[in-house]
Structures are given as C-alpha cells and as structure tokens.
Amino acid sequence: MQLRIERRMVPHVPWGLIICVLGVSLLGIWNLASASRPPLAPVWSSQALYLGLGVVAVLVVCLVDYRWIQRMAMPIYVANILALIALRFIGHTAKGAESWFVIGPFRLQPAEFMKIGVVLMLAKVYHDDFRPNEPSYGLVRLWKPVLVVGVPFVLVLVQPDLGTALMIGLSSLTVILFGKVRWYLVATLVAAILAGAIVIWNDYVRDVPEPRPTIVRHHLKKHQSQRISGWLDPEADLRGSGYHAAQSKIAVGSGGVSGKGWREGTQTGLRFLPEQHTDFIFSVWAEEHGFVLCTLLLVLYGAIFIFGLGVGFNARDRFGAFVAVGVVAMLFWQVFENIGMVIGLLPVTGITLPLMSYGGSSMMSVMLSIGLLVNISMRRHMF
Amino acid sequence: MTPPTLGNTTPGRELRRRFLWLGLAMTVLLGVLSIQLYRLQITRGEEYSAKSVANFVKEVRLRADRGVIKDARGTILVDSRPSFDAVVTPAFCTDCSEQVIPRLAELLQWDADQAKKVEDLVRQGRRNAPFQPVPVRVDLTRDEYDRLAARRDILDGVEVAPVPHRHYRTNTVLSHVLGYMNEITQEELERLNGDGSRYALGDYIGRRGLERYFEQRLRGRDGVRKEVVNARGQKIEELNVKLGDNAVVQPQAGSNVVLSIDMRLQEEAERAFPGVTGAVVAIDVHTGFIRALVSRPGFDPNLLTGRVTPTQMAQLSRDPLEPMVNRVAAEHYSPGSTFKVVTALAAFKSGAFRPETVVNCPGGYRLGARTWRCHLDRGHGPVNGLDAMKSSCDTWFYKVADTIGLDPIGEMGKSLGLGSPTGINVVAEVPGIMPTSAYHDKASPGGYTKGMALNSAIGQGDNNVTPLQLALMYAAIANGGTLYKPQMVQRLENLDGQVVQEFKPEVVRRVEIPPAHLKSVIEGLVKVAHEPGGTSYRSRLKGMRDLDVLVAAKTGTAQVARLGAIRLRTHQMSYFERDHAWFAGFAPADKPEIAVVVLNEHGGHGGVDAAPTAMAVIQKYLDLKKLDASAPPPRPNQPYTPSVLRAPSPDEAALTRGVKPPKLLPGDEEALEDTHATPD
C-alpha cells in the first residue's frame, strides 16, 4: 500500500476535471445560499463544510494506490451490503423509508456509498474476467456482474428507495453495456424499452373513453399510478400528485432567458417549491439565473463527464477504465434524472443533483468518486 | 508491486471506441435536456412567468358597504350591523370531521343533518381552495360567540370573523317590500359574472322586493387589495413592493334607497289593521307614490337572511296563510262592491243611465229564469244612481249590466288599469282579470252570457283585482282621470346624502271621463261616508276626528264561497270560505290627496272590518300633514325603532271570530267564486 504522491504523478493530475468539479460545487453553494434564505436555516454554510470534507476525501483517496483499492473492492462491497442489511434493523425511518444511520449529529445514508461499492466490484469483476479471445458477454457469462448488481439493487429497493435503486441499476447497466454484450441482449433491451413505452402510452396517454383497457395500471398501487400520471400531465392535478412537477416547471419556465436574479426567485422565496434545497435545487437555479446560465451549468456537467471518460480512456488497466466508466455513468444518470425531473421530462423520483443539492452523504459519495477518477488519472503511467 | 495480470497489460485498445460512443451518447442526452430547457424558458417563458405571478399574488376583496334603505323622512329601516360568523379554514383544520366539527355541533347545537352538511362543505373546500375560509354559521348570537371564544383552543382552524350583517329594523313590517338576502347560487354566479358583475361564492344577494330590484345599486363596487402570499397562504408584507402602485383599489359604497313610505303612517296602518291576512295600501293621488303598505302575514327578513333552518323554511312555505305572498300586488281578489264605481262610470258613459235614473229594487233582479239577489233581501225600493252607490244596491247595477252588456264595463275597467300589470317592478305582481265578452268566449264553457255581465257589474264573477290596482283606480277617479304608475322609491342617494337618481311621477295614461260623470260618482262615494245609511258612515264618525273633511269611500264584501239556499253567518263558515272585507276611497273628496284601499282577507264585512282601518289611516295622514307643516323636519339617518304592536297571531284572531283557520289549505276553495254576491 502506497501512501504518497510521487513526482511523476503530478503532470497527470486532471486539472480540468478538478476545476469543473470545484466550479459546480461553488455555484452550488452560492445557489444554496439563495434557496435557504431566511427564514429557512442557512444550510449553505454546512454545505461549504461538506465540500471541505469532500476535498479532504479526494486527497485521501488520491494517496492510496488504486490497485490496493482493487484488492479491497470485495471487502468494501461486502461491508456495504452488511450495512444495508443492518439498516433493516437499526435504521432511522424518515419519509417512509429506512435509509439513514444516525451517528451523533450525522445522518449517514449507506445507499450513497453502496453505489461506489457496486461500481468498484463491477470493475473488479470485469478486470478479472477478461478473456480477449472470446466473443462478447452472453447471457450465461453475465451471471457474475448481474449478481454483483442484483443484491444491492434489491436491498435498496426494499428500503424502499426507488430512486437510488434506479441509479444503481442504470449506472451498472451502462457499465455492462460498455463491457459489450451479445447483440440479442441489446435487441431484448430495446424491445423492453419499446414495450414499456407502449404500455405507458396505452394506460395513460391514449385518449379512450372510460373504462380504458389497461395492461399494467390496475396492478399498480394508487400512489405509484399517480406518480406516472403526474409526470405525464402535472397540470391535471395541481394540488395533488402533480403539484411538485407543475410548480417546478413554473419555476423553471418563469426564469426566462436571464432569470429573476439571485435571491429574487418568487417560487423559491415564497416556498412554492417542495424540497427546494435538495431534490429540486435545479429549479432554483433555473428560476433565478435563466436559460443562459442553465446551459452553462449543463456544459460544466458535460465537461465533468467528458474529462471523466477521458480518465478512463487513458487508464492504465481495465479496472481503472471500468471504474471511470462506472463513476461517470453514476454521476451522469443522477444529473440526467434530476434535471429531467425538474424540467418535466421524467417522473419525480428522489434523486439529488450531484454537487448542487444539499446533503453530506451525497456530497461525500460524489467526492469519493471524483477522488477515484483523480487517482486513476494520476497513476496512468506508473508501471 | 504485484505482477501484472492479463487485464493490466492491455488497458483496452478495443475499449477506446466505446469511450467515444459513450461520450457521444451522454452529450446527446444533455442536449435533450437543454432542448427542453429552451422550450420551457424561452418558448413558453411568458406563460410560466404569468403563472408564477398568479401563484403568489392573492387578491383580497374589499367589500363595499351595502346601501341602506330609508323611509321618506330619512329614518333608516334597513342597514348593516356588525356581526360575527364562524368560519372554518380547511387547511388549518386538522382532524376536522373526527373532532372539530362534532365539537362545533355540540357548541352550536346542530342536529346531525346540519353537521353532515358542514362536514361536506369543509371537505369540498379542502379540495378546491384549502385557504379559503368556509362560513359554517353566520351571525352568531352573543351566547354562541362566547361559547366559541371560550373553546377556541380545542377548535383548530375555526375562527370567528367580523362580517356586516343585514339588519331589518322593521322586523315583519314591510317585509314583502324590503325583501331579504341569501347566498348566491352557482348558476346566478355564472350568469351575473358573465354580465360583468363581480360576485364570489358565498356572497349574499338580494331576494324579493327592494333588495332584489336595486341589488346592483345597493351593492356598490367592491375594491381589491393585492397581497403577496407564500405557498402556505401566509402574507409576506416585505414583498408587497413587488406589486407596484395599483395594489389597492378602494371599494365604492352602494347607493342608499329613500322610500316614499312614511313610517309614521305605516305604523298607524299596521296598528289599525285588525286582520290576520290582508293588505292596506295608501297612495298619493297626484303622483302614484305609495305612502303606506301593509301585507299580512309577513315574514321576518332577519330570519331569512342567513339564519333560517330548513325546518323553518319548510314551515314558511307550508303555512296555509302564505306569509311569503305580497297581498298588495302579487295576489288578486274579487273586488266586490268597490268595483261598482267602474260600472257606474260605464253606465253614465253609455248615455242610457244618468245619476237620477231610478231603478226599483224588490230585493233582486230577474233575468231569464233566474233571480240575481240583492244583498238586502227585503229590497231597497226605488233608488237612483247616487243612493244605489250609498246603500250599495245591487239591483241598480244589475239593471245597468243588463242594459249595456259586459263590454262597456270591461272597457272602462281596463282603461282604469284593471286586468293589466301596474308596472310597479319593485315587487312581483299579478295582472288580475277584467273580463269582457271576448274573455268569456275563450275562457268559460259555453261562452259569454248576460249573467256574467251581471256578476261582473258588482265585482264578482271572474273580476279579480289587486289592492294596488284598486288604489290606483280610485286615485285616478280622484285626480280627474290620470292613471299613475305606482312607485315607492323617491330617490337614490350616495353616502353623503347627495341625490344620485330622482324618481319622477310617471303617468300610464289619461282616461277621458267627462268631469260631470266623475263628479256624480264622487258625490255617491261621499254619501257612503257622510249620510246615515251609507256603509261607512258609522266607521267615519267613530274613526275620524276631522269630521269636516269629506271622505269619498266605498266598501265591499266579496263573496268567496258559493251562496247556499240560506245565508250563513260569518262564524258558521270555515275560515277560507269567509267573505273578503274591502274598503276603497280617498280624501279629502273635494281636494283629493290620498287614496286608501284596505282588504281584510276572509275578514267579514267591509263596513265593519275594513272601513275603520282606512278611516284611521286617513285621519293619521291629515294629522301628520298638519304636524309637518309646523314642526321642523327630523334629523335624517335615525335608526328606526319599532313602536307598533306586533300583528295578531292566527290564534288570537280566531278567538274573536270563532273558527280557527285550518292548518292545511283544502284544494277546492278557490273555484267557488261564482253567481252571487253579498254586497253591503
């Protein structure tokens, strides 16, 4: 185990990635200062503290040679699984889900760290399972990756934390597809997506007289069904299931080209937005800063992803490449799902926006991921 | 260092292409996000801006004060008094249906039905507008207010809100004219707001009478105050600067209505009128302005404005005495002998009769196989036109009808306003019926016969008039033939007492009647009150102190039930079969000023049961005129305090008349007005 930074690593520090990440984080704190204006608690200061802790975490992760991390992937993964199981018994229940450990003043969300554990384990599986002379992954050979993803996916799903489970699923799926699968599996996936779209169209969108012939809708619970219809037409039930989505769209749309100005947002200031400093933080940004700066933020995120993929592109080994892909996919799907939900493209799920949303666990897990990227980048030509 | 494994050696030349694809896919998806952002923020930016403004700007209505209603001398009859409503704000009412509403029901003594109704209201409010207070009890009594205030801590979301409440100071007096108010219905709301008014659900709107007719004028124009509210509906004062200058539009108070009715005369009419049911109307003969108006039984507008329970409402509508009907204009009656002035005028006009024309009355008049009886079985002997009027001899008028037929009588009646609406507008009215031969050809089986003319000539048969029509007709006779439109509102004033709109007398038509004819009719009417044997001679002597004032009068006793073989005494008949007692007349006869009509429904005889009331009203009118000539005018805007005794209840009236009115109205009473009369 190597705990030092050698001189030859320094030229490979990914400064672009680090600058983009710090840039988004600082914009995030500035934005939180608006979202949590009085009389709400000024959470931006704690967010600044979390950011500081996050930077420390990045440094710590950098110091460790990632081959040690590779060896430790299994223990990390198992420890996370055990933590999730322990949550069933000693977890803290909030908003109907058992998602938190309460340790003193802190509340830890193990699912956030599980994401990283899954990414590491998956990368290790793909690293160890490298057979250059065989064709791409078929159904049988996929059992290992699927098992690695499936266990935490189910554990998080039963918390229930649909959003995080979805994120684990999507980022793993990206990694698995990246690891190349046989064409029939891709075809099945495309067919499944199409089928899902058709079911939703038939059950919710199609204009037919009641009672409409439904395929899945009558099997869903009422609140699940409402979530879908609230996504498709938030204005239909403004005071009920569509409230979040509709108010969020109003906030974003009313931002216009240049926004209402920092701390001038009415949707934010008058608290029409639910969860405005966590899940719906992007609508605060969009309302107060408008289209131009929203695009800037998207460009910054895009730059983070491109730099991250660049790290994987130049990685020394398969483990590094797969970790980079996994980490970037995890960040990407969170950003995509969160912003998509805020602007009314995707249904509302409880996903935070990396680096912008308030929350220690979220900040820490993102920073650990960034630390992994920096680590991989720095050790590109070590051997 | 560990030896490199197979994976370590080739970091993935084959992976590199996949990295490019992955980067491309992510860029495309971020592009999708920015396209949607463009749609929201640029394409539909304005629309969402408007929505966000609508979110936080709450318009609070500033209610305009409703105008007051005053009598001719400025005494306030209807105004608004401060009161308290109990309201529930659904959003703040936790455990509403389980705890709060049962507690409210206990404190306010609701029955299960009412509690259920309130529960539904609150539930509905919670869905539609959770921050909009729902009134659950208007106009709390002092006791209820105290009980609620004491238990405020266990009543989440219940508040006691100060709200002006309409106060009808006259109680049941004038109730049909003043009207009442109650909550606007959904359909009315849509219709009125479609026409440009600004009502809200839960607003009160005028029903009946002046409250309905002058609704738009009394109501005024509501103002608006804009406020910034947050998502919980709380006011955020410091953000009000965002609203700009026109954040407040001040309300404009409604106009005040000044009646032509003088409460002092009204009180005298109420006091003097003995009946349980009936009407009194006093009208200025030269303008058509109404000076006093009694319709009995009345209802209590204070009760109907908000507080009425369904049980009370059902009681009101089931009452056989029909307290909601305005008997002055919205109900018609056989005029009886009071109609004889029309017959007399038609007779003189035809040229076949003159006041001196003598007809012998043997106690009846024979036409064909039947005899039409005079009210005096032994007969009046030979009578001329004037004496026929004085003693109300039916035979003289039978002779007239037999000679000239129905149509000249009908024409005369119609030209004097009978059989058509008077145009009063403020209150509902029925047109009455003035039959002609054409009417009978259409309406009666077998068509017109001479017998119908005989019935009509003495105000029976299909003749039906409202007391108001009769008063206008006598006024027209008094003033030389001008038929006025009846009015009871002199002017509308604004808050400072300046006149907004003045109502001038309106002439319906001038009837061409030779002055000689009028003079002889009036001479006959004067004999009724001034010569012994006249039907209101005694009541004038008893009721009036100014005996030198000439009174022109005619009494009538309109028969309701068919006359049997033997005449029944009043107390032998059931209440709804008894005769109507009429009085119609004006004073002073030589220089007419006021016309008075009294109808004592099922009251008995005109000379005994109606004339004294009229005499009292006329005497009071003369007294007031003398008083006002010397005394200075009173200070206006004094609130009215009732000084009349309350109207006699049906039970009390029954004590003096022997038989109680039945609880339910039998169906077959109305069709019996036929064939014969019992004039005085």
From TrEMBL, chain A:
Gene Ontology biological process terms from the UniProt entry: cell division; cell wall organization; peptidoglycan biosynthetic process; regulation of cell shape
Residues annotated as transmembrane: 12-33, 48-66, 73-91, 146-169, 181-201, 290-312, 319-336, 356-376
Main function: Peptidoglycan polymerase that is essential for cell wall elongation.
UniProt GO cellular component terms: cell division site; plasma membrane
Organism: Myxococcus llanfairpwllgwyngyllgogerychwyrndrobwllllantysiliogogogochensis
Protein name: Peptidoglycan glycosyltransferase RodA
Keyword check for Glycosyltransferase: yes
Subcellular location: Cell membrane; Membrane
Automatic annotation (TrEMBL), chain B:
Residue spans crossing the bilayer: 19-38
Record-annotated Penicillin-binding protein dimerisation domain positions: 63-239
N6-carboxylysine PTM sites in chain numbering: K340
Family: Belongs to the class-D beta-lactamase family.
Active-site residues, Swiss-Prot/TrEMBL: S337
Source organism of the structure: Myxococcus llanfairpwllgwyngyllgogerychwyrndrobwllllantysiliogogogochensis
UniProt gene name: mrdA
Full protein name: Beta-lactamase
Xref: Pfam families: PBP_dimer, Transpeptidase
Localization, UniProt: Cell membrane; Membrane
Keyword Cell inner membrane: yes
GO CC terms, sorted: plasma membrane
EC id: 3.5.2.6
InterPro entries: Beta-lactam/transpept, Beta-lactam/transpept-like, Beta-lactam_class-D_AS, PBP_dimer, PBP_dimer_sf, PCN-bd_Tpept, Penicillin-binding_protein_2
Leader sequence segment: none
Keyword set, alphabetical order: Antibiotic resistance, Carboxypeptidase, Cell inner membrane, Cell membrane, Cell shape, Cell wall biogenesis/degradation, Hydrolase, Membrane, Peptidoglycan synthesis, Protease, Signal, Transmembrane, Transmembrane helix
